[in-house]
Every structure is written in C-alpha cells, then in structure tokens.
Amino acid sequence: MFIDTGDCSVNSISNRLDSCITCIEPDTDPAMVLVHLACGSDQLVARLTSRSANQLNLQVGNKVWAQIKSVAVVR
Predict the structure, then answer these.
(1) If pLDDT is split at 50, 70 and 90, which confidence band does 63 have?
(2) What residues does each domain of the chain span?
(3) CATH architecture type of domain 2-69
(4) Which residues belong to any copy of the Mop domain (predicted)?
(5) What predicted TM-score, i.e. pTM, was given to this entire model?
(6) Can you spell out the DSSP letters for 18-74?
C-alpha cells in the first residue's frame, strides 16, 4: 500500500481510497510503524518504515489517499 498525503500522483495503481489516519502504533520491528486508516466503514492497516511516516509527517486525523496494488492485500 502507498500512502499519499496530497493529490494522487500519476501511476498504475487503480485502487485509490480516500482515507483518514485513525491510529499510528509501533510495529514489532522497531524500524516500522502500523498506520490504521478509516475508509468509509472499512478499516485498513499499512506497514511503513518509521522514517517514511516521519518524512510524510503522518498524524492521527490526517486525510490521505491509500493506494493499493492487489498483490499487496493480506487478509
């Protein structure tokens, strides 16, 4: 999953979902974080590096675009 904080960039990802960050928590790997997203009535979780989350200045309440490649979906 990609998280974009602005308008969707040009790419081949067809699944772009308007989402809101509801929680950011540490992962079991200290270099990673789990970003919980609300997308309508659905919930998504993205695993990002802490560095990427900091560079994007991700915070609870931010509106973002979740861009999902179908091969990256795990139930």
Answers:
(1) very high
(2) 2-69
(3) Beta Barrel (2.40)
(4) 10-75
(5) 0.77
(6) EEEEEEEEE-SSTTEEEEEEEETTEEEEEEEEHHHHHHTT--TT-EEEEEE-GGG--
